[in-house]
Amino acid sequence: MRERDVVVAAQRGDRRAREQLVRAYLPLVYNVTGRALGADPDVEDVVQETMLRVVRDLGSLRQPESLRSWVLTIAVHQISSHQGRLPTVGLDQVPDAPQDFEELTILRLRLSGERRQVAEAARWLDGEDRTVLALWWQEAAGELTRGEIAAALGTTMAYAAVRVQRMRGQLDRGRAIVAALAGSPRCAGLAETVTGWDGRPAALWRKRIDRHVRDCPACLARSRDQVAVERLLAGCALVPVPAGMQAIAGGKSLASSGRSWALATAGTAAVAVVAGLLAYTQMADAKPTPTAQIVAAPSSVAVTTAAPTPSPSVSPSKSAAAKKAAKKKVAAAVKAGCNAGLDRIWASWPMVAAPKYTDLGDGTVRDEATCLVWQKAVAPSTHTFTDAQSYCSELDLAGGAWHLPSRIELTSIVDPSRSGPAIDKAAFPSTPAQFFWTSSPWAVTKEPLRAWIINFYEGLASNGAYQSGAYQVRCVRSSTEGKGRPEYEISGSVVTDPATGLTWERTGSTATMTVAEAEARCADLEMRLPTLRELSTTVDETRVAPAIDVDAFPSTVKNGWYWTSTSAAPDKTKNWALNYDDGYTNYRKATAGYARCVR
Questions:
Q1: Is residue 278 located within the same domain as residue 385?
Q2: Is 309 found in the same domain as 276?
Q3: pLDDT tens digits, one per residue of 501-544
Q4: Is there a single domain that holds both residue 460 and residue 592?
Q5: What Rg, from alpha-carbon coordinates, does the chain have?
Q6: What are the residues facing 450 on neighbouring strands?
Q7: 434, 574: one domain
């Protein structure tokens, strides 16, 4: 039976079909999770939670033929969430496990020589790169396609290629470290460098050892002429699932499009994880439960920040007169234009449909709606997060006083009606369709630190950028540095933002729906579905899960997509949506979403 037919049967309640899918995908999920988490003792727990979600939410899968990508998306989401819940420790402080996944790989696949070095080099990767390696390893082994990797990472194939290339660079450096450390005898310089090292991979020691290896001809010689990683991994089978997780009896298999789905182990009674999963399917048969689409993006982590931050100020219920005054304030700002000397903090500007830009003739451009003045050309090279801030603060263009734009400031010049790049090309010529830094750090302070970036290919906002990464830079100038918080006014079932003049539905929908259903719901409330730019102003980037003022907007779904009325330029059949797990945006992931209406 084809995979699609099995999926359809499982969605209709066929328990045997569900069991078949669980057994078919368990090895892939185990291998991706194990390689991504390495020595983490909770690998099996994460695998179990992933498979439980697959079983629970199978009914929400609208395209049965995309099952593999969907399962991997759930797996990557669970991996990222688990990594976010780990305490902020170095790589050398991960709790001991009886045997890490790299050792299992070496033993069970009988790896030796350079293949063994690749597995050992994986220990030196950071969490995000380990996840990319886990997926790419399966591509190199012939189990996945690049499109499936991109779908699992929640990005385009082009950016997936960038992430794979970046990971491979780190992996090659790890291979050089492993080869140098394995040398006998070690060079005197390396022996001195590792004095005091306990032999366990750690970020600090990676930097120290790598610095020595790159400058040491003797150490570099040990990794010269290494075989390409793809050739080493080609044909490497899946690591067999541990006995405690094996679930198949008799070596059953599925086949679809010529791809073998045979499990790596056979002939073992159903126990542990899969026994629980199959018991869950029996419960699902007995009592159907509503399902929700599980979607993921790089680095969607629901954890507590290191230091609590105060809530945005929310005033008690105010009169209709106060709301009217707020609207007048916005109208006055529009009329006054940019010569009124108004402070433009946070999103203190009207949400116009079509921004108007003025070329000031000195290498700068002014946005007449926000009154922000922008650097017309991008920085001549990419920068790290810290260097980007320094570049802007030291920029002497047209009198200086520049800063790196905040997330909300940079969002204001995104034009989602365009793509490649998503910006007004007349006002900002030669803008590359690439990621640009913002000055907004991610709320989660787990090392390595990350910050918000915006992709000017289509306008996607992401908090998944390591601050050590290199991205494009465009500086901005204003009377403030884009900081500040909304001062919401609550009145019954609505919340007004005086700065933007927008009045929001306070609670939003309690169930997911299509875009058309969301638009109809808002119309019934005499409101409308917000634009992407409007909904982005409700994100509180100092919080996660949910990244919104919970006093003003209670009951916001922690990890749910909220629809906007903005269609995606790369695919007009899809609408942009925003996820309050962190506040990131996407149009590929949301197939069912919630509605928060505005007027």
A1: no
A2: no
A3: 899 999 999 999 999 999 999 999 999 999 999 999 999 888 88
A4: yes
A5: 26
A6: 466
A7: yes
Least confident of 52-56, 426-430, 507-511: 52-56
Domain holding 407, by residue range, is 304-599
Q: Which residue has the tokens 């310089």?
A: 189
Which positions ≥6 away from 195 have C-beta within 8 Å? none
Residue carrying the six token digits 């990797």: 149
Instruction: Please enumerate in sequence order all residues whose Cβ is within 8 A of that of 217, keeping only pairs 6 or more positions apart, or say none.
Output: none
CATH code of the domain covering residue 20: 1.10.1740.10
**Max mean pLDDT range (81-95, 525-539, 584-598):** 525-539
Handedness of CA 349, 372, 414, 561 (dihedral sign): negative
> Are 343 and 274 in a shared domain?
no
Whether 513 and 566 map to the same domain: the answer is yes
Which residues, other chains included, contact 165 with Cβ-Cβ below 8 Å and sequence gap of 6+? none
3-state secondary structure of 189: helix
- Say yes or no: 316 and 277 in one domain: no
Calpha distance 211→190 (Å, rounded): 10
Amino acid at position 164, single letter:
V
Answer whether residue 200 shows pLDDT above 90. Answer: no
CATH of residue 430's domain is 3.10.100.10
Residue 138: C-alpha distances to residues 7, 72, 98 (Å): 22, 11, 25
For residue 562, give every residue at least 6 positions away whose Cβ sits within 8 Å of its Cβ, in sequence order, or none.
508, 535, 577, 578, 579, 580, 593, 594, 595, 596
